[in-house]
Design a protein that fits this description.
Largest sheet: 5 strands, parallel
Structural class: alpha/beta
CATH class of the largest domain: Alpha Beta
Strand order of the largest sheet: 6-3-2-10-22
CATH topology of the largest domain: FAD/NAD(P)-binding domain
Helix content: 10-25%
Number of helices: 7
Strand content: 25-35%
CATH superfamily of the largest domain: FAD/NAD(P)-binding domain
Length: 334
């Protein structure tokens, strides 16, 4: 059995940063994640995607952010159980918790921090009859490495941030890029929408609005998509790759059965310290909800910081918490 101070469910950026903040208070952490590597979606889904809202970094690749966070927490020697999902949680007589993973690993801790992002998730697929036969043969729901699309004909469908961001990014490597959206306006960031419009005016992106992809074509591998546009009607667009980016369908999984207050697949928390309704369990990052919630990595870092301060008081109720600025003694001085 593994014993630690804080068992963190989710090894994404927010979970990793919680390790750093806990380490400053000399609290030990052990992280559990269903993915095989630390970093969550940033490592598994879009490691090459630039992120723009990390303080001090005008732009940083998601995978690079994970590498930096791992470097930052290395002095605190956290434990990891990767490739296994948090399956069950039991409250023990001494007030601590026993967390058991799908692989049978047991972790005992007085504090549980849920930093599971969107929970377990799967991409929302467009309703195309033969889409499964082209998966991994031209249909991709996740962009892991932009170089995969270098010199190829790419069609992206969607109107949110992911579709806009990847259209901008892949326009630099693809031989031709078409962005298809069912409306004339976009739900993503206005700045990104304007960049896409500018690229379309410059002829670097083919922007097809008020349209939908209605069929896929190919013999063993995708070679074209059929598009139906309101004014133009149906036409074939050559495509080596079709990337539908309609978001993720999140599921809490076993966490939903742990007695926590849930609102629309998110865990309700108190913004004082991001505690849940179950004493000793906290939720930080995209997994939680509260009035005014913003699903930003930056906000998750703030939540993790306050959560750890509260966790220390729960673990050591008789100790005075003396928190110093990291510039006083440096990380090693805590």
């Amino acid at each position: 059995m593994i014993q630690t101070d804080i068992a963190i469910i989710g090894a994404g950026p927010v979970g990793l940063f919680a390790v750093f903040e806990a380490g400053l208070l000399k609290l030990r952490c052990h992280l559990v994640d269903a993915l095989g590597v630390p970093g969550g979606q940033c490592a598994e889904i879009y490691p090459k995607k630039p992120i723009y809202d990390i303080p001090g970094h005008p732009s940083i690749l998601a995978g690079e952010l994970v590498d930096k966070l791992m470097e930052q927490i290395a002095p605190f020697k956290p434990g990891f159980t990767l490739g296994e999902r948090a399956e069950s949680l039991e409250k023990l007589d001494d007030g601590s918790f026993l967390l058991t993973t799908t692989g049978g690993v047991q972790i005992k801790a007085p504090v549980i921090a849920i930093a599971a992002g969107l929970g377990s998730f799967e991409p929302r697929k467009p309703p195309l009859d033969n889409i499964e036969q082209f998966e991994k043969k031209g249909v991709e729901y996740i962009v892991r490495d932009p170089e995969q699309f270098r010199g190829k004909q790419v069609v992206i469908a969607g109107g949110g941030d992911s579709a806009l961001d990847w259209a901008i990014h892949l326009s630099e490597v693809a031989a031709g890029l078409t962005l298809v959206h069912r409306r004339s306006s976009f739900s993503g960031a206005p700045d990104s929408a304007e960049k896409v419009a500018a690229l379309a005016r410059a002829g670097q992106i083919a922007l097809v609005t008020d349209a939908e992809v209605t069929a896929l074509q190919g013999n063993g591998r995708l070679n074209a998509v059929r598009i139906n546009q309101k004014d133009r009607g149906e036409f074939l667009q050559p495509a080596d790759y079709f990337i539908p980016l309609f978001g993720l369908s999140p599921k809490l999984g076993p966490i939903a059965g742990w007695g926590l207050n849930i609102d629309k697949n998110a865990i309700e928390v108190d913004t004082y310290d991001y505690a849940t309704n179950v004493d000793g369990i906290y939720a930080v990052g995209d997994i939680n909800t509260y009035p005014g919630k913003l699903k930003l990595i930056l906000c998750g870092f703030h939540e993790a910081t306050l959560m750890v301060q509260s966790a220390f008081k729960r673990i050591y109720p008789d100790k005075k918490l003396s928190f110093k600025y990291t510039t006083i003694n440096g990380v090693q001085g805590f």
